[in-house]
Design a protein that fits this description.
The complex is a heterotrimer of chains A (about 350), B (about 260) and C (about 325). With about 350 residues, chain A is mainly α. Helices cover about 70% and strands about 0% of the residues of chain A. Chain C has 14 helices and two strands. Classes of the chains: A mainly alpha (about 350), B alpha/beta (about 260), C mainly alpha (about 325).
Chain lengths: ~350, ~260, ~325
Amino acid sequence: MALAESRARGASSAASQLPWLQNLNPAAVLVAVVVLIMPAIASSFVLTQIFGWAYMLGTIALSLMFLAGYGGMVSLAQVTVAGFAGYVVAILGVNGVPGGRGWPWWLAVLAALILSTVVGAIVGALAVRTEGIYTIMITLAIAAAFYYFTNENYAIFNGHTGIDGIPTPVFLGVDWHAPIPFYYLTLFVAVLCWLAVSYVSRAPFGLALQGIRDNPRRMAALGFNVNAHRVAAYVFAALIAALGGILLVWGYGEIAPGAVSVSAAIDILVIAVVGGIGNPIGPFIGALIYVVLKTFALDVLVAFGLDGNRFRLLIGLGFLAIVFFSPDGVIGLWARWRNRLQADSAPPQKAGDGHG
Amino acid sequence: MDSVAQRLSAVGSANALELRGVTRLFGALAALVDVSLTVRPGERRAVLGSNGAGKTTLFNCITGDFPPSSGTIRFFGEDVTAFPPQERIRRGLRRTYQISALFPRLSVLDNVYLACRGVSRGRYSFIQPRRSDALVHAAENLVQAVHLTAIKDRFVAELAYGQQRQLEIALALAGAPRLILFDEPAAGLSPTERAELIEILSSLPAYIGYIIIEHDMDVALRVVERITMMHNGRIFKEGAPQEIEADPEVQELYLGGGHA
Amino acid sequence: MNSFIARRPIWSLIILVVAIALTWIVFAPWPPGFEAVFGRKKLFLNAALNGITLGGLYFLVASGFTLIFGLMRNVNLAHGSIYLLGGYFGYLAVDATGSWLFSFVVAFVVAALLGVILQVVVFRRMEGQELRQTLVTLGISIVLADLMLWAFGGNSWQIQTPTWLRGPVELPLVTAVKSSGEAVYLSYPIVRLVIFLASVVIGLGMWLVLNRTRVGMIIRAGVDDREMLAAMGAPVQLVFVIVFAFGAGLAGMAGVVGGTFQSLSPGEDTRFLLASLIVVIVGGMGSIPGAALGAIMIGLAEQVGLAYFPTYAIVLTFLIMVLVLAVRPQGLLARR
């Protein structure tokens, strides 16, 4: 897995610039152009229901990728943080269940982001008390507990019904809920988060996190406070997840416990793993696959004569296939395919194990 | 940073390391018994002995991985017996491991950079360092010191065993080390690699002292000025390499059973 | 125990005082002032007994989970799905044969078979890759959940309590004293008590096997040190298969129990997976006594919470988990 990643990311020195500059290849430029001019070629439905959703889910999955890929911590509580942020915006702002505080949107967003980092720190503090595989268990328990709580509690979260009537703000004279503005909004946030994660991964903080992933004992022996670093990583990831969650609540116009259910948490993990947790672009690829599948599964299944509701079965089978055959996700598949092409075209070189 | 360490070592007549009556018990097992040891600043020492003599336990006590059951440890005049490993590292103590403890999914340069970062400020920085950054330079210099510049961008997982051992040494040189503990640095190396190791150790700046645990007498005799022999948790002989080599008791107990 | 009292005299005193207080609370009729503050004794006793018997059910499910993780370091996220699958098949068995006891056998066999297939076909190929194994169990739980939804629908299925276990029994616990001076005793469903006793018996049986037999010794050695197990020359793979099958089978049988106590429906798999997770986090990985302690604690927390502050019941469970993580992260009765 490490070798595939190394070729995909490209080995770079500690003082390199943004890694994507080195990988600036024609395919990437093409994708960027297409993504930017998408509104000119795609329908409103595709813009918001496919791409907009992919950007939002991808952002949340990116927060999971940051923790899992760079930190070695698989957190199933990212959806919890995202949903929490969404609920805060819903409760503090205007909503259709009279009871919203009516705060201006930017204040509600600010509060949501701040509170989400606190929640992220708490999740992190709980999760780092134990090693490795326990992280999945503890974060899953946290996610489930939050789900059950929002489902039962009517005083704050309005229980099973949830909160609806949440407006997307109008600012700078633009109604951001309209398809084209919403597309660009979600695209902007996604790109921002993707750049942030890529950049931070090569900063001392990100490098230290990767060191902790690889050998926490040695990092402690080198002078790092391993647990403090891990909690800080959870806080950073919480910010990203919160951004995704706020966009989702604007996109849906409502929020209910289903958004923070265990299924939702697992779906984000599936998205991240299918795309590939070794590279920040992975979660977005996974999200696109997921959204396309979800949108067209009904028609495809019926066309094959199967029960149209079996979308989750497809997700589960697809996920299993990836975990079995390409654990580093679609990115890994692509990287291996690209290496095979390069190996075919270039003369064979030794992998270099002579003396340094 | 280097000059600061030099000045610190020169000033004061404190010994780099002073162990007095250090004993370490594991239940009924006495791994170290009344060990007293003095290492001067810049001194090169080897600790030799058969398996089970207590060498690694000695290192673990010095680094603070666990406290001695009794006795004191002074590092450059300061009583560090109760200090956690963190504090000892910050005062210039370093250690390498018998089994390389590296970061496989990061490059050689990144590994050394992390070691340099660990003992300086800015560990949580979100800003990428520039090419001209002082710590990056320090890391590159260290990579050069251990002859790994040609592969500085290669991932550790792809390195050969000998190269990993060289990197292990580089990690210990980060920051301003005043005393380094090398745990079997020559283990598993080919003759060429061993020659390189000897060269690296010999060319370390004079103010950096080190203690080597080794089984390989060839390497040990060539890079140190003084040898401490341990047996059953005690120190039973100390002297210059030639003396030790010629000593009949040592020959019987240690060399007599064949070279390790 | 004497050494425990000697080492921690204050804790021993506290435990003694708490034990005496609890004994009084349970067995003595409550004076009116007490009831004014704490509510009716009947409510409390029902909640306490519900909690303990639910704890028995949680123990059945969680003990399999903890064994599988303790030995094979595999967080089996499909454990809840196995519980539900066993329950559904148990229902079908009762429906077909009318025998409640036989349904246990069916549930055990189906679940154990699934366990064997998983271990042999899937996990053996991923030896040592803990995260990957866990992800596979996740994928399997997704697939199983949807297949069961497809096959059994979204409604609740309830397994009928067999006639010979129906009805209440009077327990020697006073709930109130009538004005005539006559004591009123608590009536409690027999089936819940029987199932709790069965859990205790199974738990003791497991403990005996683990601590008094050769197979048990191999398993315990494996929980402590996997590499050592192989070095001992024990048939490692066979032991893994047996343990996985047994753990899964237990979960399947628990499905029948849950189907009788409560009901079977989509979402129960998540609920019991979560219960297993929390029980094991609290009690300690790989520890059967830990699973028992954790199960009782969580069962009580859930039922007492449900009786006294329903919308915040989950918070109590969660708080217990957080406390344990803060104070003793490896679990209350874990070895380390």
